[in-house]
C-alpha cells in the first residue's frame, strides 16, 4: 500500500471517514504495533488500561466460544 496522505489521516482522526482493514494494517505497520492493538484501543471507552483490558477480556471470551477446545 502506498503512503497515506495527511488529509486522509485527518479525516480518519476527525471521524469523517472509517478506515478499511487494509488501512488499519497499514497504520499498525507504520506504528509498529499489531493491528488488533489499534482495534482494541478504538473500542475502549477511554484510553486507559482498565478500558483496554475490558475490550480484551471480551475478545478472549468470544474467541473461547469460537475456537475448538483443542486449539488452546
The proportion of strand residues reads under 5%
Number of strands: 0
Number of alpha- plus pi-helical segments = 4
What is the string of helix and strand elements?
HHHH
Q: Outline the low-pLDDT stretches.
A: none
Major β-sheet annotation: none
Mean pLDDT: 88
Per-chain topology:
Layout: H1 6-13, H2 21-31, H3 35-43, H4 49-66
Helix pairs in contact: 2-3
Short structural description:
The chain contains four helices and no strands. It has 72 residues and is mainly α. It is globular.
Q: What descriptors fit this protein?
A:
globular; mainly alpha; 72 residues
Structure description:
- The protein is globular and about 45 Å long.
- 0% of the residues are buried.
- By secondary structure, it is an all-alpha fold.
- Helix 2 (21-31) packs across helix 3.
- Helices cover 64% and strands 0% of the residues.
- It has helices at residues 6-13, 21-31, 35-43, 49-66.
Amino acid at each position: 500500500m502506498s503512503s497515506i496522505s495527511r488529509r486522509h489521516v485527518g479525516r480518519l482522526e476527525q471521524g469523517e471517514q472509517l478506515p478499511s482493514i487494509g488501512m488499519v494494517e497499514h497504520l499498525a505497520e507504520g506504528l509498529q504495533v499489531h493491528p488488533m492493538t489499534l482495534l482494541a484501543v478504538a473500542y475502549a471507552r477511554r484510553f486507559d488500561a482498565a478500558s483496554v483490558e475490558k475490550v480484551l477480556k471480551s475478545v478472549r471470551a468470544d474467541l473461547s466460544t469460537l475456537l475448538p477446545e483443542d486449539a488452546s
